[in-house]
Amino acid sequence: MPIDPGLAIGAELGDVTFTWSASDVLLYHLALGAGARPTDERELRYTYERDLRVLPTFATVASKLHLVDPPAVSYPGIEIDLAQVVHGTQAITTHRPIPVEGKAAGRTKVVDVQDKGKAAVIITETEVTGADGSPLWTERSSIFARGEGGFGGERGSSDKVELPDREPDEVIETPTLPQQALLYRLCGDRNPLHADPEFARAAGFDVPILHGLCTYGVVAKAVTDALLDADVTQVESFSARFAGIVLPGETLRTAVWRDGKRLLVSTSSIDRNAPVLSDAVLVSK
């Protein structure tokens, strides 16, 4: 069915109340590859409840942790085949440190639908508040739906981040695990694109690919560890554009440039010499 931007833009997608525990946080961190150095005190902040801290990108899975069905793209004015969808952008802004366990409420709405010609971009925003009603985080994301453009909507603007014309201040190499997609799907994203070889081939990929949000979390952790001494409480926000896929088992190369409180980030796959994340910015407090 063609996208109807008049129905879609501004549509409320419902409220959701959810809870999480320390075990959920530990699973998420382990699914990102945390704990590869199991006696390192900084790694234990992610993997041991004694001094557990929550990486802000946990916000991307907190409300979905206990889902077992594949996600659906079915909104007012929008019905899209999941096989045609890839993640476009993701941004998280924390309003205070995410607690190790808690209860929260989220309200999501469609804020824009962009017509890119051969594809459509659907942008949603979620405001999350804690049990006491105070803001916890704001999540903004977009999906890129192939073959769904041409409905007569606005094309939208570009949010390109210009990188400095100099060598990066830090270069980080991060291996991913061959089974990482199978681990990460336990955090609530059961899209068969990340597990089922037949489904992946139907979607145009040779093999199942890593979740974009897993890559997003892996890079956020790598930058936090390398430039913020693994202090997750210093992360105010992290935004990125998904520029390409990651195949589980590849090694990521992340270049970082300091720009005041902003850390400008670009990530590529070493194995394929291919971009992975672009226009990425981590803002520290």
Automatic annotation (TrEMBL):
<feature type="region of interest" description="Disordered">
    <location>
        <begin position="148"/>
        <end position="167"/>
    </location>
</feature>
<feature type="compositionally biased region" description="Basic and acidic residues">
    <location>
        <begin position="156"/>
        <end position="166"/>
    </location>
</feature>
<feature type="domain" description="Peroxisomal multifunctional enzyme type 2-like N-terminal">
    <location>
        <begin position="18"/>
        <end position="147"/>
    </location>
</feature>
<dbReference type="GO" id="GO:0004300">
    <property type="term" value="F:enoyl-CoA hydratase activity"/>
</dbReference>
<feature type="domain" description="MaoC-like">
    <location>
        <begin position="162"/>
        <end position="267"/>
    </location>
</feature>
<dbReference type="Pfam" id="PF22622">
    <property type="entry name" value="MFE-2_hydrat-2_N"/>
</dbReference>
<dbReference type="GO" id="GO:0006635">
    <property type="term" value="P:fatty acid beta-oxidation"/>
</dbReference>
<protein>
    <submittedName>
        <fullName>3-alpha,7-alpha, 12-alpha-trihydroxy-5-beta-cholest-24-enoyl-CoA hydratase</fullName>
    </submittedName>
</protein>
<dbReference type="InterPro" id="IPR002539">
    <property type="entry name" value="MaoC-like_dom"/>
</dbReference>
<dbReference type="GO" id="GO:0003857">
    <property type="term" value="F:(3S)-3-hydroxyacyl-CoA dehydrogenase (NAD+) activity"/>
</dbReference>
<dbReference type="GO" id="GO:0044594">
    <property type="term" value="F:17-beta-hydroxysteroid dehydrogenase (NAD+) activity"/>
</dbReference>
<dbReference type="Pfam" id="PF01575">
    <property type="entry name" value="MaoC_dehydratas"/>
</dbReference>
<dbReference type="InterPro" id="IPR029069">
    <property type="entry name" value="HotDog_dom_sf"/>
</dbReference>
<comment type="similarity">
    <text>Belongs to the enoyl-CoA hydratase/isomerase family.</text>
</comment>
<dbReference type="InterPro" id="IPR054357">
    <property type="entry name" value="MFE-2_N"/>
</dbReference>
